[in-house]
Sequence to fold (440 residues):
Amino acid sequence: MTAPKKLFIKTYGCQMNVYDSERMAEALGGQGYEQTATAEDADMILLNTCHIREKAAEKVYSELGRYKGLKADKPDLKIGVAGCVAQAEGQEIMRRQPMVDLVVGPQSYHRLPEMEARVSQGDKALDTDFPEEDKFERLKSRPKAARGPTAFLTVQEGCDKFCAFCVVPYTRGAEVSRPAARILDEARDLVERGVREITLLGQNVNAYHGAGPDGSDYTLARLIWDLDKVDGLERIRFTTSHPNDMTDDLIEAHGTCAKLMPYLHLPVQSGSDRILKRMNRSHTAESYLALIERIRAARPDILMSGDFIVGFPEETEADFQATLDLIEAVEYGYAYSFKYSARPGTPAAERAEVDAAEADDRLQRLQALITRQQRDIQQSMVGRTVNVLFEKPGRFEGQMVGKSDYLHAVHVTDATLSAGQIAPVRIVEAGANSLAGVLA
Fold:
């Protein structure tokens, strides 16, 4: 029998890229590849890239440079670049790094088997199209291997919002939602293989409007209620949402759907209405706070998470103080915060930037506030009993680690626990990044 070829995938960025990497590995599995943990063992190296962070493309080129020696020692080694940097840079990647054999955008990775076959014949392969065919339908045949207790499931891609700082509409394209029936089939398949919690993914997931089984348009809330009926699926989450698409039925679902976890990531980016308008966010600080109030009325114990950009062009100290005021009002359990960095081709890239030292200072002050809120919320969990889905062994003997309903990392030392088990845990200690508990 022919020995399997080895595939090494390095994944950058968001949860959707994690999901995409799984699907790319499955697509190449039909070409005789199985995954390996190290680039040195690989017959093919694939970088699944993200274009959100600062200097994303340069980091990819730097990573590619590390593989020159491997390519020299193993001339048949195939090297590919996938994802959003691939979409943005295209042919430029091959020009700057001639050792790259294939470049594939995030909407074309279902074509990887054909591209790999062309590379095996000595050609280069480039595909950054936005094809009409459904890549998920092309890749719906999954190997029936066992899975861990949690999984991502992409339900929506692309974005029509065109925020002034964001490249997603240009790299992922317009909003597209998968049909509900196909999502439900994939969810049942995941559950059959051991998954107990599914996180629904989308660049703008709560704008989901896929075709329902009856031909009508589904909202995300309707999809969640159908997933609620899937036997064996115990938990549902979704990310990332836009405030303008938090519909009434989705807010209601947070209060009435037992499987929908009490955690919501709802980015606001700034607390200044002037900056929000310059960002093209289409909401105000007041409307966002009113939305938070409605969500908490439906689910009082919900834990909120958010995103913040500090030092956006033209941001003043007063604008920044408005952001701090909003954070104080909301009280976030988690937040992701970044100093603004320009993305070529976006409207904000043409504007004068805030002084770098001032932006650094603002970021430190914002992160100090977020850290205090996060620790206060984690400390408030001590003495409470929460349900924990255990995922894997911890660092110490007999220890298992999992996530609470609120997405807190929780570790318990108890030899009776196993991965995939959901158990009530009384929290006894709060650390900087996790909680310690005992079985209740």
Remarks:
- The chain has a mean pLDDT of 92.
- Residues 385-439 form a domain with the OB fold (Dihydrolipoamide Acetyltransferase, E2P) fold (CATH 2.40.50.140).
